[in-house]
Amino acid sequence: MNWLASLREQRDRLWVPVLLIVAWEIFSRSGWLPPSLLPAPSTVCRTWADWVFSIDESSQANAGRWIHDALASSVRVFVGYAIAVVSGVLLGVAIGWWRWVEKTIEPTIQMLRPVPPVSWIPLAIIWFGIANKPAIFLVFLGAFFPVLMNAIHGVKTVDRNLIRAAAMMGGREAQILRYVVLPAALPSIFAGLRIAIGSAWMLTVTAEMVAVKSGLGYVLWDSYYFLRYDLVIAAMISIGLLGFLTDWLIKLLMSRILHWQHGQTVQGRNH
Amino acid sequence: MASIELKDIVKIYKDRKRGTELLSIDNVSFSVDSNEFLCLLGPSGCGKSTLLNMIAGFESATSGTVSVGGKPVLGPGADRGMVFQQATLMPWLPVWENIAFSLKLAGKGAEERRAAAQPFIDMVKLTGFENHYPAELSGGMAQRVGIARALLLNFSVILMDEPFAALDAQTKLEMQEELVAIWQRHQGTVVFVTHSVDEALVLGSQIAVMTHRPGRIRELIKLDLPRPRDSTSAEFNEYKRHILALIREESALARADAATV
Ligand SMILES: Nc1ncnc2c1ncn2[C@@H]1O[C@H](COP(=O)(O)OP(=O)(O)OP(=O)(O)O)[C@@H](O)[C@H]1O
Ligand SMILES: [Mg+2]
């Protein structure tokens, strides 16, 4: 009766969201608010379906262009995030491991870190123009610091005796970094990766609202000007779904790579 | 092979945050000839681990010199292996990879490492647990992995920090016998830290009894006992009485010191 148990588990997970959506539908149809201000879930779904599949032109110029918009946003997230991850991990390991790197670079980083990435938008536009580059730059800024800080923390908290054990077994410095420090820091690095993917989506959408003329964030902001709140909500949900999907992919990767942690941590208790 | 010599070792730990200094080792000198089995016996906190760390080259003495095989110790080296007080395994590697980690550093392939690890896995009675991760082992099992890892490297000096403390009586007995057999076969110098007078008498060719903190050597006793050791023999118990008397004196002194501070 395995499927029955899994069905029951699905029911446990789903009844709150289902209830919320039903309540929203009823509220929207009750006429308390003009329907254009809070479109019903059914309207959002219809518009969304047209945005994706071009069915009845209810999303007007956007009909059938969802995949194009979603891809445009995803590419920006992916490129900015990838640059941030590679540079953040490398620099973080260097800062955590070598005192002299920490001394020379850390103060600069601590000065730049409190500047909110969105406040870079004007400079990003005059440097990179209105296209992909300012968005990628912002995504990089948003993702870089969480990756960096967690990598530094991960390296600094490596058990000293593990490094001693490796040195005793003849490990040279480069080998100790590669075979001991990096794997030992991975749980912390992955925590940073998961925070960073959230920032990455947030900044793509922000950049698209201001500095780019395509992507889910652009459709969201453009629809706001045309009072199409059904499209605004469809765009919000799309961004949420893609964010969820990317976070899930990172979690999947994490559970593959950190499988050795299994049985060592609290896995979530029943009741 | 390699003898160990400690000359006028003083170790002071400076605590920068609290602004205090702690005298951990106070002027220790002793030497261990090659192929001896020295057991270090002393109360908790007297500096046994600190001494081992200095011989291993993980820490340096505040003053004094440590030399192994006539050469001063400047850092960890391929001639000295340590079995840590806490097992200190790489949690992301299965048992066999932990045991053969040194071969990975030497650039050996997986197949060769696997084959080299097997006899040591069997020796420490972990057959069947090759692919378990450290988080899935008991404390005593993890400790045995640490022992196998050190034995695989065939060091000429092995430093062991209470390696059998977490084992049950039966396994402890077997491991003690195995360790003595290995030591007799391969020859090599062993420094073995323990709290147990019986264990020191079963294993050692010499016993160094340390004072309470700051650690000094109270007495170095050369054991003249036939192997395998018989813990019921009159000579064995003669040594035991003598050492227990020393320890009792030391703990009385420690209490007196604590009362005056
Ligand atoms: N890294 C360190 N920093 C500061 N003080 C230390 C450090 N390592 C050890 N000490 C101090 O030095 C003293 C000796 O410690 P050590 O670990 O050598 O004792 P031990 O004899 O091995 O004790 P045990 O039998 O409990 O393992 C202790 O008082 C301890 O607080
Ligand atoms: Mg100790």
UniProtKB/TrEMBL annotation, chain A:
<dbReference type="Pfam" id="PF00528">
    <property type="entry name" value="BPD_transp_1"/>
</dbReference>
<feature type="transmembrane region" description="Helical">
    <location>
        <begin position="112"/>
        <end position="130"/>
    </location>
</feature>
<feature type="transmembrane region" description="Helical">
    <location>
        <begin position="231"/>
        <end position="250"/>
    </location>
</feature>
<protein>
    <submittedName>
        <fullName>ABC transporter permease</fullName>
    </submittedName>
</protein>
<keyword id="KW-0472">Membrane</keyword>
<feature type="transmembrane region" description="Helical">
    <location>
        <begin position="14"/>
        <end position="32"/>
    </location>
</feature>
<dbReference type="GO" id="GO:0005886">
    <property type="term" value="C:plasma membrane"/>
</dbReference>
<comment type="similarity">
    <text>Belongs to the binding-protein-dependent transport system permease family.</text>
</comment>
<feature type="domain" description="ABC transmembrane type-1">
    <location>
        <begin position="70"/>
        <end position="250"/>
    </location>
</feature>
<feature type="transmembrane region" description="Helical">
    <location>
        <begin position="78"/>
        <end position="100"/>
    </location>
</feature>
<keyword id="KW-1133">Transmembrane helix</keyword>
<keyword id="KW-1003">Cell membrane</keyword>
<dbReference type="InterPro" id="IPR000515">
    <property type="entry name" value="MetI-like"/>
</dbReference>
<feature type="transmembrane region" description="Helical">
    <location>
        <begin position="176"/>
        <end position="197"/>
    </location>
</feature>
<dbReference type="GO" id="GO:0042918">
    <property type="term" value="P:alkanesulfonate transmembrane transport"/>
</dbReference>
<dbReference type="InterPro" id="IPR035906">
    <property type="entry name" value="MetI-like_sf"/>
</dbReference>
<keyword id="KW-0812">Transmembrane</keyword>
<feature type="transmembrane region" description="Helical">
    <location>
        <begin position="136"/>
        <end position="155"/>
    </location>
</feature>
<keyword id="KW-0813">Transport</keyword>
UniProtKB/TrEMBL annotation, chain B:
<dbReference type="InterPro" id="IPR003593">
    <property type="entry name" value="AAA+_ATPase"/>
</dbReference>
<protein>
    <submittedName>
        <fullName>ABC transporter ATP-binding protein</fullName>
    </submittedName>
</protein>
<keyword id="KW-0645">Protease</keyword>
<keyword id="KW-1003">Cell membrane</keyword>
<dbReference type="InterPro" id="IPR003439">
    <property type="entry name" value="ABC_transporter-like_ATP-bd"/>
</dbReference>
<keyword id="KW-0031">Aminopeptidase</keyword>
<keyword id="KW-0067">ATP-binding</keyword>
<dbReference type="GO" id="GO:0005524">
    <property type="term" value="F:ATP binding"/>
</dbReference>
<dbReference type="InterPro" id="IPR027417">
    <property type="entry name" value="P-loop_NTPase"/>
</dbReference>
<dbReference type="InterPro" id="IPR017871">
    <property type="entry name" value="ABC_transporter-like_CS"/>
</dbReference>
<keyword id="KW-0813">Transport</keyword>
<dbReference type="GO" id="GO:0016887">
    <property type="term" value="F:ATP hydrolysis activity"/>
</dbReference>
<dbReference type="GO" id="GO:0004177">
    <property type="term" value="F:aminopeptidase activity"/>
</dbReference>
<feature type="domain" description="ABC transporter">
    <location>
        <begin position="4"/>
        <end position="237"/>
    </location>
</feature>
<dbReference type="Pfam" id="PF00005">
    <property type="entry name" value="ABC_tran"/>
</dbReference>
<keyword id="KW-0472">Membrane</keyword>
<keyword id="KW-0547">Nucleotide-binding</keyword>
<keyword id="KW-0378">Hydrolase</keyword>
<comment type="similarity">
    <text>Belongs to the ABC transporter superfamily.</text>
</comment>
<dbReference type="InterPro" id="IPR050166">
    <property type="entry name" value="ABC_transporter_ATP-bind"/>
</dbReference>
